[in-house]
Amino acid sequence: MRGLPIILVGATLAGCAATAEQPMRSAQKQQEYQQLIAGKVAGPPVSCLPTYNANDMIVIDEQTIAFRQGSSRVYIAHMPGGCSNLGRPPYTMVTKQFGSAQLCRGDIARIVDPVNRITVGSCVFGDFTPYARAGG
Q1: Tens of pLDDT, residues 87-130
Q2: Phi, psi (rounded to 5 degrees) for 40
Q3: CA distance 42 to 83
Q4: Residue (of 36, 31, 33, 39) closest to 136 by Cα position
Q5: CB 124 within 8 A of CB 109
Q6: Does residue 131 contact residue 42 with C-beta atoms inside 8 Å?
């Protein structure tokens, strides 16, 4: 009988681990996200962004970053495990690409306090899902 509670606890924990945690997103950020993908169709995920301009990056929440490419295409990157302090002032994201100038799955992003020059968080990029207007 002693083994039964341990099995139940293990099953409960396994059930919790299988549930994907939904990102916490303000109503304003949810609206911004919806506007970015409105009228666009998701394509298959890609492992690297074809081009990357930091000025076209939009932080949606601690797990989601959007990269605009003109008005007809946006890439959505999800950070597996989240990215603590992402998008919170005065922090900034610093990326380091390995092997190319492209931003790719597996690249590490550090969240840095630019005033004190200390790292306050870090995360890894997942795949990038392109959203484009139909026919574009």
Answers
A1: 888 999 988 766 677 899 999 999 999 999 999 999 999 999 99
A2: -115, 155
A3: 23
A4: 39
A5: yes
A6: yes
Q: Which amino acid is present at 124?
A: V
- Phi/psi for 29 (5° steps) reads -70, -35
Q: In Å, what is the CA distance from 17 to each residue of 5, 12, 101, 112? A: 18, 9, 35, 29
Look up residue 18 and give its two tokens: 């299988």
Characterize the bridge pairing of strands 128-133 and 64-69.
Answer: unpaired
- Residue 135, token pair as written in the block: 């026919």
Residues in CB range of 6: below 8 A, 6 or more apart: none
108 secondary structure, DSSP code: E
- Can you give the residue ranges of every domain in the chain? 24-133
Asked whether the beta carbons of 104 and 125 are under 8 A apart, the reply is yes
Query: Could you tell me which residues are beta bridge partners of residue 3?
Result: none
Distances (CA, A) of 84 to 10, 11, 110: 28, 29, 10
Full-model pTM: 0.77
Report the C-alpha gap between 35 and 20 in whole angstroms: 24
